[in-house]
């Protein structure tokens, strides 16, 4: 699934799509592919690296100069750096009753690396959660308007597990599953955004694409082994509909949410892309393992961190001016 932030604006019934991406070459390729299938589409590009807070602030300002309305904000960007598989646990899990959960979530077999960004944030937390949070805050004037409702859509994961997240370590500096932690945090944050912004016309929802075979997935396991297990995974889809496998199937919930009224969606639900054994795609809500108190506590911590980051950026700008 193409890692980018997508924004959709409707003006007089005409939809405008903006692809906000870090890699502009891939963004242009995606735009051209879109125009081939939809020649009348209006799609623009915006450079955005959600792991870089200066890039987030610049992109948000540029967007606000171009548009005065924002209807849908798809937060699809994310990273899982240096994923590693415990091969002994993997082979053992293949013949256990936990095999479906293992494939769907990586539980017990998958760990990831992480590093600190120049501004002092954990890279996975910064890219998968905090950069998106800061973007939403920056675009608040466009998302919160009295004449229409807007929807923020977070791409979460089956790996969003409560056990991987701690309020005492929201950046997951001490753990080995930063991706899982960041995705669970996005579930919590979505709930908090609904609590704080619904009365201003901003709504938030979470989706899960299911098990999708992407470049990231192919990079985790050896190619010869993937060639062996892919037929098995296709067969298992007869029994478990979370094996969406293709990015097209995985995007089903993203499209389904676009067709709904934001105010009709359940803030406690994660909307899953599912594919039946016959290849039919559909969306189904599943209640998330989250609670109000934890989501509010995370929201407060993110607001505090936002103040800290903004102050650090201002201090850096001041130092540069002083030196010049």
Description:
By secondary structure, the protein is α/β, with parallel strands linked by helices. The protein has twelve helices and ten strands. α1 links the parallel β2 and β3. α5 runs parallel beside α7. The longest helix is centred in the last third of the chain and has 32 residues. One of its GO terms (cellular component) is endoplasmic reticulum membrane.
Considering the chains and any ligands shown, give keywords for the structure.
single chain, 324 residues, alpha/beta, eight-stranded mixed beta sheet, 12 helices
As a whole number of angstroms, the C-alpha radius of gyration is 20 Å
Strand order of the largest sheet: 3-2-1-4-7-8-9-10
DSSP helix fraction: 40-55%
Task: Give the count of helical stretches.
Answer: 12
Distance between the termini: 43 Å
Q: What structural class should be given to the helix and strand makeup?
A: alpha/beta
Order of helices and strands: EEHEHEEHHEHHEHEHHHHEEH
Number of strands: 10
Low-confidence stretches: none
Oligomeric form of this entry?
A: single chain
Q: Provide mean pLDDT, rounded.
A: 85
Strand residue content: 15-25%
Coarse morphology: globular
Largest sheet: 8 strands, mixed
